[in-house]
Amino acid sequence: MMSNHSRATEFCLLGFLGSQELHHTLFAMFFFFYSVTLMGNMVIIVIVCVDKRLQSPMYFFLGHLSVLEILVTSIIVPVMLWGLLLPGMQTISLAACVTQLFLYLAVGTTEFALLGAMAVDRYVAVCNPLRYNIIMNSCTCNFVVIVSWAFGFLSEIWPVYATFQLTFCKSNVLDHFYCDRGQLLKLSCDDTLFTEFVLFLMAVFIIIGSLAPTIVSYTYIISTILKIPSASGRRKAFSTCASHFTFVVIGYGTCLFLYVKPKQTQAAEYNKIVSLLISVLTPFLNPFIFTLRNDKVIEALQDGVKRCCQLLKD
Length: 314
Description:
Elements: E1 10-13, H1 20-50, H2 57-85, E2 90-93, H3 94-127, H4 132-135, H5 138-155, H6 157-164, E3 173-174, H7 181-187, H8 193-226, H9 231-259, H10 268-291, H11 295-313
Parallel strand pairs: 1-3
Antiparallel strand pairs: 1-2
């Protein structure tokens, strides 16, 4: 606990409650998820870079999405794993807390912007296939990626700054496994109503704003696919969008529950579950979503494995 007028210089992360045996079980499970996430997304990045069949805007964006998934899980999971090994509460310095929260929110915002761009890319591919290479040229793709990264990092400077301008005098114990903004607001003895309202509006702008082009794009995509006379043609057209659409549903669904609501200080257990979905499950699923139903990626993986086996034999 802290005195009434002192400012926090470090925070204690309460993490997961339970026995040491439960913590060891959770450690093994989350370490497995984290390892598979790193390997799976790294494989996607490598094959997108080296395989000529994947030199297209769709896979260019997918490579950046995999980088973001590695970052978002690496910002949270190593700290969480270390906390599970410690016998008591884990401490984190104020500077580390600021850095973790900023990077987590910035990378997440960048991902939303990129998902919106990927939806527009799919719209052009399905609805304007003859002009696809002209519209989605290398300059356009590079510009979209640069803007997505810049927007993600610049848009989260003020929210994080405003959060840490508050006075944390109630306690320095965060009921979470990382520096969660909602739990930080709970510790403040200032009036956070205005700050929470502004953060809510910014979350609406970022999430709904990036979701809008996705909804519009898929409305046109579905309308175009339904006009294709043959069933095989419809399946082929939809297969190019199925992976992205699945990822959008999972990614936006979890973040809408966590961030788009006026009251940021929701129950800790609810917050932990949704945060696990965002930082552990979604990055873990990304390689499977974008490879299992994609023939080009599967072929590139098979050829890569064959080449590796051939090198080992030689």
